[in-house]
Design goal:
alpha/beta; globular; Membrane-bound Lytic Murein Transglycosylase D, Chain A; seven-stranded mixed β-sheet
């Protein structure tokens, strides 16, 4: 599938349709009138003019003209006057976001939509929508932009909390978005998204989007004063009713209905309901026992599938296990930490062919290691063994780092046990741990970190809904010169910039569907413009997504993140380094790693590679990123030895070398005192005890380059040992200046440079000068083109798209594969267990940690790269990372 060719054909088709409308010269009106406090150009329509061509002249979208001039929808008339806003909608929206006192996202109203309707859609009290939009009235006009405040803004709107400070980075500009024609797509209910459906075709009659309104007799009045569990929504599963959900949370049905406007007795799979906080309900509410009205399940007295126990008594006490759908005898044994042969010994006549609801006796035995052994009978793939035990491949490789893609007859493979296994600690022998216990310790972090409720089992029945928001910039075709475009190379043509991210995502999607995952992927064209982003947010299917990936640009991401937080939908930011994305929003997962994760690696680096070095930390100013610089400073100090020893003989040699620079010095004399590392040395004392050593204080030198320049380095650098320079900088001009000056010192000092925090973002640095300084630096991405998996990906990409994969192709694959895998294996435990689901991918490793007590996650993994002989190499993780954080699988 040659996506680029398809996009190019679409662009040129749009261009051909519109080129005639651009050929008519349209002068911009100089007449400006004020209507309802807003300024408008008054444009008189002339022959040959269209709404689209007029919109281009005034830098607005056709929708803005239609909104202000509804009669224009029926067609333009010669000499008709059109009122066109002097400030376009894009600029207006951006200014509103910057200047607002509270957080909100936009909703574009449908015809005659009411505040009450919006209250039921977004599950927030109607009065807050009214307070956020004091200039609007209900019913709303079609196309009106309505501010939907998020829950954290309610106290601000009530005057109970301070107004939000404007810290969001939103660029207000005077340029509006060009109009991008929406194409109806039957597969996505006329939304602007392209839908990729990997599941079986099935009726959508049970979709939340098509829910039949509840009978009015089933509903109760909405009560906005009911306290609900903050930042939480109950997602309805198949078979649930309003009553069973209320029983689950031990709250009255009427209270649940009152917290969710329009809720009747029946609910639809995928609905997201606010849940009242039981602890804050009034004492007068009669409490009912949990699950009081749920039907009781009566077990049959006989079952033809029950295994007959062995004639002899089992060696261990047993427990009964009822076989569930898709379980295998191997997966059952793994869950309890027993082998298949042990299961067969405990169940006379048991074979590997089992059926649902069959009862199997499982030996209740203690094991000393968090794994069982699988003996390979014939050459096979690791993926087949993983499927047999119903676990992901990475878990097998985590316990068996030496295995490749295939295993061979007679090979023993360690299979990690499940949550029901009983792992004991072996006693100590002669103050030393036994060999078995040493092996247990090696994997101790795996069992300790795994929460007991996390079940890493793929769900092949559920259909996962994913939104992929990529900037396609198709509207840029409007300004193309067709002949010039076709005759010249266009490397920076925006519609092609991110297309490979999409292509990489397609390959990841294809890989997971082959593993049994069912996915509906909706692809949206979301760029920088808020007007375009808001149009996407009005699509009804977005409210029921399991995951949103993107948008890529900050303005749009901020809006979608607020929307996602309102519906408790995880949203992935794949490309941004901004910390604000996890500090300002809910349910955000930041793929680019946090800067402070580098501190641990820097400490290890200093300890291993620069233990005997003089260490300098240079920053551009004393205030920029001061908190991070201080953390790095403290981390280095904790690793440095307080003092360093030099032999008196080498100090004497240095004293003579320094003295000989003075033309008046005579070799027969004792050299005069000199200074090394800002410490004065007396050669006369050294001569008296040449076999002894001299101790010099060893401390970190902090340099504020803006005020100190490089003078502290020149005064403290050592000619007798290596000098490690940590250069903290984000501006290219600053980094280049320091590198150039350090290169001038190479003849006098041995210098080793460590670049922090994100030098991978700085282009066109001199590789020669950095190579001379033995540069190492942190990178969020590193592609090993020699690895088998990378070569397989490149071959597959070439075969599918007839082009070479770039950075975005690898990113698209990694991001999509990881997060779809997470949903596939974690399901409803996604938010609870993501920090226990590390994975090594094509160009990086994803190892997420929860941000404080939130539902936000941030990657903590960095690659540490080194420039050696003009070649970029990766310092192995087992050298630079703590053992418990090293992932050894490929």
């Amino acid at each position: 599938m040659e996506i680029k060719k398809i996009v190019l054909v679409a662009i040129l088709s749009i261009l051909i349709l519109r080129v005639s409308s651009q050929s008519v010269y349209i002068p911009k009106s100089e007449i400006i009138e004020s209507r309802n406090g807003k300024s408008y150009y008054v444009h008189t329509v002339r022959k040959g003019q269209t709404v689209y061509s007029i919109a281009k002249v005034y830098n607005v979208t056709p929708n803005e003209i239609y909104f202000e001039n509804p009669v224009a929808k029926k067609g333009l008339l010669i000499n008709q006057n059109l009122f066109i806003p002097t400030v376009n909608k894009e600029t207006e929206l951006k200014n509103d976001v910057v200047t607002a006192d509270f957080d909100f996202f936009y909703h574009v109203a449908s015809k005659n939509e009411t505040f009450a309707r919006l209250s039921s859609i977004y599950l927030i009290p109607e009065r807050y929508i009214f307070k956020a939009n004091p200039n609007l009235s209900s019913p709303l006009r079609e196309g009106e932009y309505v501010k939907i405040p998020v829950e954290d803004s309610f106290d601000i709107l009530d005057g109970k909390a301070k107004k939000r400070s404007s810290t969001r980075s939103v660029k207000a500009s005077n340029t509006g978005s060009a109009y991008s024609k929406r194409v109806n797509n039957p597969a996505s209910n006329n939304s602007s998204a392209s839908k990729l459906n990997t599941s079986d075709n099935r009726s959508k009659s049970n979709s939340a989007n098509n829910r039949i309104p509840a009978d009015i007799s089933e509903t109760v009045s909405f009560n906005p004063d009911i306290a609900v569990i903050p930042d939480y929504r109950h997602v309805v599963i198949l078979g649930e009713t309003t009553k069973t959900i209320a029983n689950k949370y031990d709250i009255p049905v009427d209270i649940l209905k009152a917290a969710n406007p329009g809720l009747g007795n029946n609910v639809t799979k995928g609905d997201r309901l606010r849940v009242p906080d039981k602890t804050k309900l009034q004492k007068t509410i009669k409490e009912q026992p949990l699950n009081n009205n749920e039907p009781k399940i009566i077990e049959p007295t006989t079952d033809t599938n029950i295994s007959i126990p062995a004639a002899t008594s089992p060696q261990y006490e047993t427990i009964k296990h009822k076989v569930k759908k898709k379980e295998t005898l191997y997966s059952i044994g793994r869950e309890y930490g027993v082998t298949v042969s042990e299961l067969m010994q405990a169940n006379n006549g048991l074979t590997t062919t089992i059926s649902i609801r069959q009862i199997i006796l499982v030996p209740k035995k203690k094991i000393s290691t968090p794994y069982i052994i699988h003996r390979v009978e014939n050459k096979t793939k690791v993926s087949k063994i993983a499927k047999l035990y119903r676990i992901p491949v990475y878990q097998i490789k985590e316990y068996n780092p030496e295995v490749g893609k295939r295993v061979y007859s007679g090979q023993d493979i360690k299979i990690p046990v499940g949550n029901h296994a009983i792992i004991m600690t072996l006693p100590l022998v002669n103050d030393k741990v036994s060999r078995s216990h040493e092996q247990s310790d090696r994997y101790k972090h795996i069992t300790e970190n795994r929460s007991s409720h996390c079940n890493f089992t793929p769900d092949g029945n559920r259909i996962f809904k994913i939104a992929l928001m990529i900037p396609m910039f198709l509207e840029e075709a409007d300004s193309l010169n067709k002949e010039e475009f076709l005759l010249s190379h266009q490397p920076f043509f925006s519609p092609f910039r991110f297309i490979q991210f999409y292509e990489g995502a397609l390959l990841a999607l294809d890989s997971l569907t082959k593993q049994g995952m069912k996915v509906e992927m909706y692809v949206y064209d979301v760029g920088r413009n808020l007007t375009k982003t808001t149009e996407v947010l009005r699509q009804r299917e977005l409210r029921n997504m399991d995951l949103i990936i993107g948008p890529f640009y900050s303005n749009s991401f901020n809006q979608v993140a607020l929307f996602a937080g309102n519906f408790n939908i995880p949203i992935v930011n794949p490309l941004s380094y901004r910390e604000a994305v996890i500090n300002d929003y809910k349910t955000v997962i930041k793929v680019k790693p946090e800067i402070l994760s580098q501190v641990v690696m820097i400490k290890t680096y200093v300890n291993i590679f620069a233990n005997y070095s003089k260490v300098f930390l240079i920053s551009q100013t004393s205030y920029k990123d001061a908190d991070k610089v201080i953390e790095i400073n403290n981390g280095i100090i904790s690793e440095l030895e307080p003092q360093i020893k030099f032999s008196n003989e080498e100090l004497l040699d240095l004293a003579f070398a320094v003295a000989q620079r003075d033309t008046l010095y005579e070799d027969v004399n004792t050299p005069p005192p000199f200074i090394i590392e800002n410490t004065e040395i007396y050669p006369s004392i050294l001569e008296s005890i040449p076999s002894d050593s001299t101790v010099i204080n060893n401390y970190l030198i902090r340099i504020n380059y803006a005020t100190d320049s490089l003078h502290p380095f020149l005064e403290n650098a050592s000619p007798l040992r290596n000098n490690l320079v940590l250069l903290y900088g984000t501006k290219k001009s600053f980094i280049l200046d320091v590198i150039n000056r350090l290169n001038e010192c190479r003849d006098t000092f041995d210098i080793q440079l460590l670049g922090v925090p994100t030098w991978e973002r700085i282009n066109n640095l001199s590789n020669v000068e950095m190579n001379n300084l033995n540069l190492s630096y942190f990178a969020s991405n590193y592609i090993n083109y020699q690895s088998e998996s990378t070569q397989d990906f490149i071959d597959t990409f070439r075969n599918n798209f007839s082009s070479e994969p770039d950075y975005y192709a690898f990113s698209g694959f990694d991001v999509t594969y990881y997060f779809l895998s997470s949903l596939f294996y974690l399901g409803d435990d996604f938010s609870d267990c993501l920090d226990q689901f590390p994975m090594k991918l094509l160009q990086s490793t994803y190892s997420f940690k929860r941000v404080a007590n939130t539902d936000n996650f941030e990657n903590k993994y960095w690659n540490l790269l080194q420039l050696k002989h003009m070649t970029k190499i990766k310092i192995p993780d087992n050298i630079i990372l703590p053992e418990k954080e090293v992932l050894t699988y490929d």
